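User: structure tokens for this one?
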Amino acid sequence: MVTVTRALADRIAVVAQLLKSDEMPDEALRRLTDLGVELVPGCTAAAVTVAAGSQALTFAASDPRIDELHRQFDGHEGPVLETLLHNEPRRVDDTAGESRWPAFCRAAEKAGFGSCLVLPLRTDRRPAGAVALYGQERHVFQGAAHDIALTFAAQGGTAVRNAALYRECRRMTDNLHTALESRATIEQAKGILNAEFGVPPEEAFQLLSRVSQNINRKVREISADLVQGRIDREMFRPVQGE
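Assistant:
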């Protein structure tokens, strides 16, 4: 019988701290799946999946068999997709005898999993994703094991929220860097046109825009080509009367 001790509760509480260090989010989510295997009795493999529109994308898995299993069913059928859609747990006690999601259960049984428990990872009362726990034996996610899994998932939601915030900050930073690099390249291109044709900065940008429209490419792309000498400067020569 599984006993929920103070030591176990403290260990589960550590899950929420995964991204309070400088650890990369993908690595932290992978550690989250490893902790699921370690902390939830009967669990032999775990994965973290997030919703992406009408699909489900698995970000981390402790076992390559889950990667293959989820690739087949992400966005189609199965307990993972239902948990993401309805923000409710889904449990399969016996993959060989489960009548729901027959294709998924057949594939899970073939992969060597006898049972499955999928729990929502909630952040701010919304599902940020789901943790899928798999057991080799049947009927492993019952009783105290189920309660421990619920506690683990509650703490896991905090870790996933931290990962999402980290990833969003990185995306915004990368976009800012891209914008700054594009602006610098465009300014260099305007300087080249100013030196070549004696046009002021405003007119130089109009020349870049004209060529951009003519060849259906972005201004930053043709600016980079101009700076790198990959495009004929004569294309930008001002037309008399413009």
